[in-house]
Amino acid sequence: MKIVLAEKVSPATLAVFQKEAGWQIVSPDQIKNGLAAELADADALVVRSAVQADAALLAHAPKLRVIGRAGVGVDNIDTDAATHQGIVVMNTPGANAVAVAELTIGLMIAMGRSIPRANATMHAGKWDKKTLQGQELRGKTLGIVGLGRIGLEVARRAHAFGMNLIGYDPFIAPVIARENNVTLVDIDTIFKESDYLTLHVGLTTQTEGLINAHSIGIMKKGIRIVNCARGELIVDEALAEGIKSGKVGGAALDVFRQEPLKESVYYGLENVLLSPHIGGSTDEAQEAIGIQLAMQVRDYLKLGVVQNAVNVPSLSREEYEEVAPYVEMAERLGSFLSHAAPGNLENIQLTYSGRLAAGKTDLIKNAALCGILSGEEGVNRINSATIAAERGIRIQEDKKEFTTGGAGSVLKLTLHAAEGDTSASATVLHGTSPRLLTYDGIDIEAPLHGTLVAIRNHDVPGVVGRIGTILGEQSVNIANFALGRAISTRSGRVPQGQALAVVQIDVPTAAVANAAVEALRKVEAIASVRLVELPKA
């Protein structure tokens, strides 16, 4: 593995990679011929905020599998370009939660007690005690917009100061809010009742410009606003006007629309505290961020565990270990059905049954799509859903609590085309063995590994023997032979009077396998033959 560290990291971060035998670690001072040249054979790229990992740079990185961002924001990474190339983009949310939360509380205290002005007047030789009458946090209402890791850390600290906590976050369970002494309310209530307001949400179309002329208009007179999240959450001109009018008692801003801040409507406003995006800038936070990122990148390269990814579904190590056999099974099942649809593929239906239906299935879906689209150049488990969408293929997912036939978890794939459908289902036996269960509605248990020959034939005497004879004549050994027959017209694509066979074969070369398939196709009773190459067991 080759890891390119485009920006400086801590010694502890570097040590995580250096412990891996045989890994090549390229530090910033070792990049002599430019970053693009260094990425030509790199597996991973680690950046902070200075390096722009745009489409032009990624075009020079054909082997790149993962980009790690030491921090939260990924504005400097073209995630769309990365997804198209099948590159995972990871960040490190939460590693700096305590640092940002402590700064938030510090800024609230600084505003309530006018600490910056007190310091400035003292350095100017003034003893201006009478004009520095402040307010305690105790008893004040703090509105928290966003109750993720940082928002909850703020809540815990603010509760210790005796503040009344109200919060808005549509994606948090009420029990979590209650455990942290936060009363959940709607956003307008936050604006109307807060003495202090702090923002801890990401940037979306719903949150951009959240603090604007309208929202400021319904706030309490004298409200104090803290923003350590994203500069785009605030309409700067509206906030500046609110401060000038006295409606807003103060603001403390650590983030801005354009960074570094060079021109601003806030310059010269006494009640505005400005800091240069230092929320996560503590020794402890930077160390934690670097180590967390290095471990995430390492685990993805070694184990395939996707954590804190911004462009693909993420799982914890424990979740991944549970679902991993089904991810592998899903890709094999998709490969088995690849090119089997009787026409142009229009829709893919994934049906999860049993325990699978109760868990996270995004990676299973991506793996299945990867298998189905395996003929497309550059497709992998990261970009398969994107490529399917680009091809105009609709994806439908259904979940059923129970299974039939005794299997604990079953995935069924159905490929819909204008000319008809084809389907197959599979499970994992003994935790490691992927097995085909049905093919076009017919029970036909077979292994999902190695070289398989899928055969449709007329259900007449002599076909099975003829298949065996032909394979023997071609020096092909049969490892497994699974048969199934249509017993009604409700079996799926296979009409009554036809049968299916899935034969696992041992072949010395691809040429031998192809020759055997061509010989089988000449048998009058055989309707179709497909050769499927799957990974070995």
From TrEMBL:
UniProt-listed Enzyme Commission number(s): 1.1.1.95
UniProt pathway annotation: Amino-acid biosynthesis; L-serine biosynthesis; L-serine from 3-phospho-D-glycerate: step 1/3
One MF annotation (Gene Ontology) recorded for this entry: NAD binding
ACT domain mapped to chain residues: 452-534
EC class (word): oxidoreductase
Catalytic activity entry: (R)-2-hydroxyglutarate + NAD(+) = 2-oxoglutarate + NADH + H(+); (2R)-3-phosphoglycerate + NAD(+) = 3-phosphooxypyruvate + NADH + H(+)
Gene Ontology biological process terms, A to Z: L-serine biosynthetic process
Keywords noted in UniProt: Amino-acid biosynthesis, NAD, Oxidoreductase, Serine biosynthesis
A Pfam short name: PGDH_inter
Function per UniProt: Catalyzes the reversible oxidation of 3-phospho-D-glycerate to 3-phosphonooxypyruvate, the first step of the phosphorylated L-serine biosynthesis pathway. Also catalyzes the reversible oxidation of 2-hydroxyglutarate to 2-oxoglutarate.
Assigned protein family: Belongs to the D-isomer specific 2-hydroxyacid dehydrogenase family.
Matches recorded under PANTHER family: D-ISOMER SPECIFIC 2-HYDROXYACID DEHYDROGENASE FAMILY PROTEIN (AFU_ORTHOLOGUE AFUA_6G10090)
Name used for this protein in its record: D-3-phosphoglycerate dehydrogenase
Organism of this sequence: Granulicella pectinivorans
